[in-house]
């Protein structure tokens, strides 16, 4: 096909992915369990042996030898006792003879396991295990493996100790008025937090195990009747393509999922708020969560969605609109100000009004360094202060950043190291970059700022403009899961602008973003109230 | 890159932006001089007339392209004119766009050097621009179009607002009731003015990627009309701020017009720097459009070499060619010649093609339009 | 294959980038290395021999801002505030060429001249009378030059103007520029900047510049205007003449019209708005121009006999009265100016564009056109407000 010439590279890449998908990820192999309990126990000890927290517990139930294998560090001893061991021991005496046993027939044919699963173990989470790979995985997940002598099928009983922290207010996405809940590190709790808000039978939770060594459970959440199936499919595919030993946090997952992982711009939105996750799911986005990370990843995401914060939806729409504009301006300022300042002052002072120029000139008479050095000194100082502020304990950190900022700035001016205008400029950019709603975006701002500074130090205003072109070109070529990054602006869809720069009243926000190509482009349809209004007209 | 977007698909809005971005660029800084030299106070009428001519030519181009809805001009050139002439024409297309890029970049570099970086060598200005050009072109057509779409409206809006400031200092007595010297001066300034509209013929190249082909003509006409209005606005601006006598003596009349702007006194000195800043995106989109079209033409003619290779090959060529003329005036002579070629590609060429199509159809080489050429 | 290609490209890009990086920064110049020129004063010296040839000699005065003395101590302590250093340096050069003059400031200063912030060009009267064509060419060729840089004619030694101390502005040039701008805005002085000059020069139209003079207290005073024809100064206009001319030229901004009444007393009418149109016609082969002036005014001073404006009739009477007076005055001025200069000081050339016969006649031979022209003025004057008092107090001396 003639169009492939543009996209040859991408086609290659996807083929490679598909190939990889077919390769088996496992190392243990799906060999079945032995029939003999002794042999099974030996093999298990061999595979998991050496760990001091690997424990086994041997019981007798209905004349048959039953063994439990689990990891002491993961299993909850209380639950194990109550739900498995005690029940097994109680039943042991009830049917003393084989004849009275509900399981009749020859000893070879008799199968105790279904009986145990259905009648004895009182845990809700049980699963039949037939091969070694699953067996060991289940134990590593914190389940207890129950094996019966003479049967080549085991039973995994969920007795995991739930030792997550409690739900706390969010750190990076604070809201003044909105709910104060954030995700924790336990996947189940997190999914629960979403389910609590979204009681929809169409909310699907699919899980994929990622990480060869860590075997983390990764959940894909979406609304089955809304989300674009191609996006969901793509997420599934990319998740299954991940070949790694471990995913330490959501950042690793993010990098694996992104289209362009060299880009500075996040193409997924990490959020630690369940309410944000819910609203995105309702819009038709997909959320990915991973065990051990307190952030959910929302996708696909566009540039303008990264500039939205929760508070936009917890305040009046007029204020939300105003503050979005402020945020856009802050974004622009924080990226451009130092570069623009340098290019104006060192290359094109013609643009500066004469009076201002004279006073700036006067302020700089005693400063020995060139502008570029001056700006770099101040920027470096700000970065050091910021880093120190994060690393230090909270009360000290604040003191350091405030005192450091004030004192060093003032002292630097007095010592004629920098000119006062530079201090103002650098402070302005530093403060502007804190307005980024997504933490990673703030980092992006900082790097881009240095990039533009470099551009304008080379070619002045011209270089500065060229630098902006490069950034623009880069943003324009980004694609997040098939959605162009600048979506409602390009491809232009005026309908989606209702929630881009402005936020119109929620009542009017009746449609889902068109760029997501959802199955149901309209939300909930018209509410009965609206119908009445229209009829009255 | 695997995802929902597989092949370039240009929506009607994107087509408007693309056309506009490609043809509005470097030329309009100089255009008022050419128009005013002959048409004097009626120059703005010439501009509007030129826009109408462009739309007429566009209609013919659209007619031709509709016959081959899934092919670019390079695919049906050989079909219509035979392999040899067709290939030669294809190469001519590529060279035409190449030289368009060259003249555009050189003129831009001269403006930048004169107004922004007086001591920086032109080579550096050109090289920096070329590097920035290649980056968005690297990934094909869609990033370019998205860039146009997201950047141009803002730029244009700011630019119009900026020039409205110049209108504040206008002297409306410079205007005159049209056609006082008859219609001849208006017509005689036409060819010079049409040069500034050249670039709309990229529709030949990207027609197969347009999604709603029945709207292609309307979209491109909107682009031309918007550009024509913008040009007329500028010519009128130079007329009322500078007057025809000054305009025809200025190297860049539009820049001189910007120099009359006095933003709230002592707020910004030298407003024309702001103009250059606002104009650079427009120039950039033009270079980008032409450069990519050039690479695209050569790639379609010689498909053995990938598009990116062609870009890499053309880049040093553009650099070297743009440095050959000694000064701006020599460069403007080049751009006049390129304009002539452009006139050929927009006026006689589509008409010849139309005739060829009719003849071939009569001979039975082409299927009838009802069967094949239905719009998608 | 693909990998190798990418490496190669990356290498090229890096090399190019490093090339740009190493070779870059041609125009990088620190602020303190730029000499900000805010004013240029030019006057003509007697022709002299320069490099073996007898040439027109100019005295070029370049005013450069000295930041150390220019106040604006934005931080570094208040100690440098009153160090008594001057905020500017005047560099005076005698040269036959302006470009060379500006260029020679490099050898006299430790900074590189930057003309982008030029606010004022002062032209000495002698130079103005001998023709400013060479200065004009230099100024308009310069890309750095803005078109709203003020150009004024200086009546007196140029260096005196550029050393007159100013209280509000850092340098005398800025002071004069600000003053010229104010004069043009509040009085009825014409626009007097580079844009106007270049437009008029190109269109072969006479133009008018603000003229500054020094009074007895060595204060700068801008109350006159200089008329230029063919780039030479041909005459001077007083404030009253200038005002009348502005009314005819349709350059009506704020201004005060004063009319005499009995006993040397005056009536002041503040201009609120107004316009002036021309109704040209060819009558008996002579151009006949009717200026239709329509003014809206505000009564702000009334020194005459006790009068009351409580009835509309009275206001209408005053309107008629002053309208007739103004008409007389304008007609007199117009006739005087056209006879004195025999040039198109009324800016008819642009305003007659829609009347081809007159336009071409004027273009062909402005002198005869002006000699033959018959001027007629119609004034319609309206008093829109009379302030907050209806009556003038009765005069004690005249019961």
Write the layout of secondary structure elements.
The complex is a heterotrimer of chains A (537), B (376) and C (399).
Chain A: H1 4-22, H2 37-48, E1 54-61, E2 64-71, H3 77-92, H4 113-120, E3 126-129, H5 132-140, E4 143-148, E5 154-158, H6 187-197, E6 203-210, E7 216-223, H7 229-241, H8 250-257, E8 269-271, H9 274-283, E9 286-290, E10 296-299, H10 303-306, H11 311-314, H12 317-347, H13 354-364, H14 371-391, H15 394-414, H16 420-433, H17 439-477, E11 479-480, E12 483-484, H18 528-536
Antiparallel strand pairs in A: 1-2, 2-4, 3-5, 4-5, 6-7, 7-9, 8-10, 9-10, 11-12
Helix pairs in contact in A: 1-7, 6-9, 12-16, 12-17, 14-15, 14-16
Chain B: H1 12-23, H2 31-39, H3 43-67, H4 73-81, H5 83-115, H6 122-137, H7 141-167, H8 184-188, H9 190-194, H10 203-206, H11 216-241, H12 243-247, H13 253-259, H14 272-301, H15 307-322, H16 328-346, H17 348-363, H18 369-372
Helix pairs in contact in B: 1-7, 1-11, 1-14, 2-3, 3-11, 3-17, 4-5, 5-6, 5-14, 5-15, 5-16, 6-14, 6-15, 7-11, 7-14, 11-13, 14-15
Chain C: H1 2-23, E1 34-50, E2 53-65, E3 88-95, H2 98-108, E4 112-114, E5 120-124, H3 125-130, H4 133-141, E6 150-155, H5 158-161, H6 172-186, H7 194-203, E7 207-214, E8 220-229, E9 232-237, H8 239-249, E10 256-261, E11 265-283, E12 286-302, H9 312-341, H10 348-351, H11 356-364, H12 366-372, E13 374-385
Parallel strand pairs in C: 1-4, 1-5, 5-6, 6-7, 12-13
Antiparallel strand pairs in C: 1-2, 2-3, 7-8, 8-9, 10-11, 11-12
Helix pairs in contact in C: 8-9, 11-12
Low-confidence stretches of chain C: 72-82
Query: What structural class is derived from the secondary structure elements of chain C?
Result: alpha/beta
Distance between the termini of chain B: 26 Å
Rg of chain C, alpha carbons: 28 Å
How many domain units of chain B?
A: 1
Q: Kindly state the mean pLDDT of chain C as a whole number?
A: 80
In this structure, how is the largest beta sheet of chain B organized? none
The CATH first-level class of chain B comes to Mainly Alpha
Summary of the model, kept short:
The complex is a heterotrimer of chains A (537), B (376) and C (399). Helices cover 48% and strands 12% of the residues of chain A. Chain A is α+β, with helices and mostly antiparallel strands.
């Amino acid at each position: 096909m003639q169009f492939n010439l543009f996209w040859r590279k991408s086609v290659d890449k996807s083929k490679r992915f598909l190939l990889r998908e077919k390769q088996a990820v496992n190392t243990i192999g799906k060999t079945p369990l032995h029939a003999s309990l002794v042999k099974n126990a030996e093999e298990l000890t061999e595979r998991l042996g050496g760990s001091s927290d690997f424990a086994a517990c041997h019981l007798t139930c209905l004349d048959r030898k039953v063994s439990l294998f689990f990891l002491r560090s993961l299993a909850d001893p209380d639950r194990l006792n109550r739900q498995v061991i005690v029940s097994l021991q109680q039943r042991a005496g009830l049917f003393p003879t084989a004849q009275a046993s509900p399981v009749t027939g020859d000893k070879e044919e008799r199968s105790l396991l279904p009986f145990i699963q259905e009648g004895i173990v009182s845990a809700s989470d049980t699963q039949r295990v037939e091969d070694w790979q699953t067996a060991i995985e289940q134990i590593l997940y914190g389940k207890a493996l129950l094996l019966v002598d003479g049967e080549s099928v085991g039973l995994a009983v969920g007795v995991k100790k739930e030792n997550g922290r409690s739900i706390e207010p969010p750190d990076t996405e604070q809201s003044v008025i909105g709910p104060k809940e954030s995700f924790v590190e336990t996947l189940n709790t997190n999914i629960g937090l979403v389910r609590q808000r979204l009681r929809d039978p169409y909310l699907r939770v699919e899980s994929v195990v990622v990480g060869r060594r860590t075997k983390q459970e990764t959940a894909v959440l979406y609304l089955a009747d809304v989300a674009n199936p191609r996006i969901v499919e793509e997420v599934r595919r990319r998740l299954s393509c991940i070949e790694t030993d471990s995913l330490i946090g959501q950042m690793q997952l993010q990098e694996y999922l992104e289209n362009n992982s060299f880009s500075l711009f996040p193409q997924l939105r990490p959020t630690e708020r369940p309410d944000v996750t819910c609203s995105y799911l309702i819009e038709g986005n997909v959320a990915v969560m991973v065990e051990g990370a307190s952030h959910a990843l929302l996708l696909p995401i566009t540039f303008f969605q990264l500039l939205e914060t929760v508070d936009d939806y917890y305040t009046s729409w007029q204020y939300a609109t105003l503050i979005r504009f402020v945020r856009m301006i802050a974004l622009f300022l924080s990226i451009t100000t130092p570069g623009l300042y340098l290019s104006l002052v060192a290359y094109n002072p013609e643009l500066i009004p004469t009076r201002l120029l004279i006073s700036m000139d006067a302020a700089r008479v005693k400063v020995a360094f060139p502008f570029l050095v001056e700006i770099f000194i101040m920027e470096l100082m700000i970065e050091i202060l910021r880093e120190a502020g994060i690393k230090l304990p909270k009360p000290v950190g604040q003191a350091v950043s405030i005192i450091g900022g004030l004192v060093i700035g003032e002292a630097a001016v007095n010592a004629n190291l920098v000119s006062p205008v530079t201090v103002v400029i650098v402070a302005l950019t530093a403060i502007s970059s804190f307005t980024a709603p997504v933490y990673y975006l703030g980092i992006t701002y900082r790097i881009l700022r240095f990039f533009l500074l470099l551009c304008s130090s080379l070619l002045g205003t011209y270089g500065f403009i060229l630098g902006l072109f490069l950034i623009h070109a880069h943003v324009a070529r980004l694609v997040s899961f098939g959605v162009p990054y600048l979506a409602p602006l390009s491809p232009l869809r005026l309908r989606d602008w209702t929630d881009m720069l402005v936020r119109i009243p929620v009542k009017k926000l009746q449609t889902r973003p068109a760029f997501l190509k959802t199955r149901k482009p309209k939300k909930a349809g018209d509410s009965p109230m609206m119908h009445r209004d229209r009829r009255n007209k | 890159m695997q995802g929902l977007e597989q092949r370039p698909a240009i929506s009607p809005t994107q087509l408007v932006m693309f056309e506009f971005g490609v043809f509005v660029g470097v030329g309009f800084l100089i255009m008022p001089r050419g128009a005013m030299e002959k048409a004097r106070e009626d120059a703005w009428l010439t501009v509007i007339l030129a826009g109408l001519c462009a739309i007429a030519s566009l209609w013919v181009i659209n007619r031709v392209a509709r016959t081959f809805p899934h092919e670019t001009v390079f695919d049906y050139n050989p079909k219509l004119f035979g392999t040899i002439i067709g290939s030669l024409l294809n190469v001519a297309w590529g060279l035409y766009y190449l030289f368009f890029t060259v003249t555009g970049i050189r003129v831009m570099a001269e403006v930048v050097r004169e107004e922004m970086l007086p001591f920086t060598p032109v080579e550096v200005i050109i090289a920096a621009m070329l590097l920035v050009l290649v980056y968005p072109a690297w990934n094909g057509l869609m990033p370019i179009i998205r860039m146009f779409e997201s950047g141009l409206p803002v730029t244009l809006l700011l630019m119009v607002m900026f020039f409205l400031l110049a209108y504040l200092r206008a002297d409306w007595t410079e205007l005159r009731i049209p056609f006082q010297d008859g219609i001849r001066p208006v017509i005689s300034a036409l060819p010079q003015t049409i040069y500034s509209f050249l670039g709309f013929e990229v529709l030949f190249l990207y027609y197969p990627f347009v999604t709603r082909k029945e709207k292609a003509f309307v979209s491109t006409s909107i682009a031309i009309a918007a550009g024509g209005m913008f040009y007329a606005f500028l010519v009128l601006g130079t007329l009322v701020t500078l007057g025809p006598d000054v305009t025809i003596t200025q190297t860049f009349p539009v820049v001189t017009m910007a120099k009359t702007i006095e933003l709230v006194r002592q707020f910004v000195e030298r407003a024309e720097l702001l103009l250059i800043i606002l104009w650079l995106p427009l120039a950039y989109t033009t270079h980008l459009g032409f450069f990519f079209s050039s690479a695209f033409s050569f790639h379609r003619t010689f498909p053995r070499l990938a598009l990116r290779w062609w870009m890499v090959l053309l880049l040093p060529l553009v650099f070297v060619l743009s440095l050959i003329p000694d000064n701006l005036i020599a460069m403007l002579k080049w751009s006049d010649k390129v304009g002539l070629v452009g006139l050929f590609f927009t006026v006689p060429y589509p008409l010849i093609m139309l005739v060829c199509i009719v003849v071939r159809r009569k001979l039975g080489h082409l299927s009838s339009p009802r069967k094949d050429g239905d719009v998608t | 294959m693909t990998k190798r290609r990418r490496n190669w490209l990356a290498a090229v890009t890096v090399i190019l980038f490093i090339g740009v990086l190493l070779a870059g920064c041609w125009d990088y110049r620190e602020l303190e290395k730029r000499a900000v020129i805010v004013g240029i004063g030019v006057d003509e010296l007697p022709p002299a021999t320069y490099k073996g040839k007898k040439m027109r000699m100019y005295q070029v005065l370049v005013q450069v801002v000295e930041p150390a003395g220019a106040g604006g101590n934005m931080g570094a302590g208040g100690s440098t505030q009153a160090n008594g250093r001057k905020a500017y340096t005047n560099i005076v050069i005698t040269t036959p060429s302006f470009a060379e003059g500006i260029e020679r400031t490099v050898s006299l200063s430790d900074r590189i001249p930057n003309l982008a912030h030029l606010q004022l060009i002062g032209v000495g009267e002698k130079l103005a009378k001998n023709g400013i064509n060479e200065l004009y060419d230099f100024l308009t060729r310069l890309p750095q030059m803005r078109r709203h840089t003020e150009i004024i004619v200086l009546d007196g030694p140029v260096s005196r103007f550029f050393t007159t101390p100013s209280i509000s502005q850092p340098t005398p040039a800025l002071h004069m520029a600000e003053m010229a701008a104010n004069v043009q805005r509040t009085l009825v002085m014409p626009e007097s900047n580079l844009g106007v000059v270049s437009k008029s020069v190109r269109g072969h139209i006479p133009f008018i510049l603000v003229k500054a003079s020094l009074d007895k207290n060595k204060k700068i005073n801008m109350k006159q205007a200089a008329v230029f024809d063919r780039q030479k100064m041909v005459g001077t206009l007083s404030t009253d003449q200038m005002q009348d001319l502005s009314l005819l030229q349709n350059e009506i901004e704020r201004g005060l019209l004063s009319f005499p009444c009995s006993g040397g007393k005056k009536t002041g009418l503040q201009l609120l708005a107004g316009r002036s149109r021309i109704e040209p016609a060819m009558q008996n082969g002579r151009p006949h121009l009717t200026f239709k002036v329509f003014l809206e005014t505000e009564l702000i001073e009334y020194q005459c006999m006790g009068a009351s404006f409580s009835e509309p009739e009275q206001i209408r009477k005053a309107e008629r009265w002053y309208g007739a007076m103004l008409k007389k005055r304008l007609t007199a001025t117009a006739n005087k100016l056209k006879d004195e200069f025999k040039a198109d000081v009324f800016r008819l050339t642009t305003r007659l564009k829609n009347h081809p016969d007159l336009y071409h006649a004027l273009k062909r031979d402005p002198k005869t056109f002006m000699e033959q022209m018959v001027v007629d003025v119609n004034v319609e004057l309206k008093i829109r407000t009379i302030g907050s008092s209806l009556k003038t107090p009765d005069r004690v001396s005249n019961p």
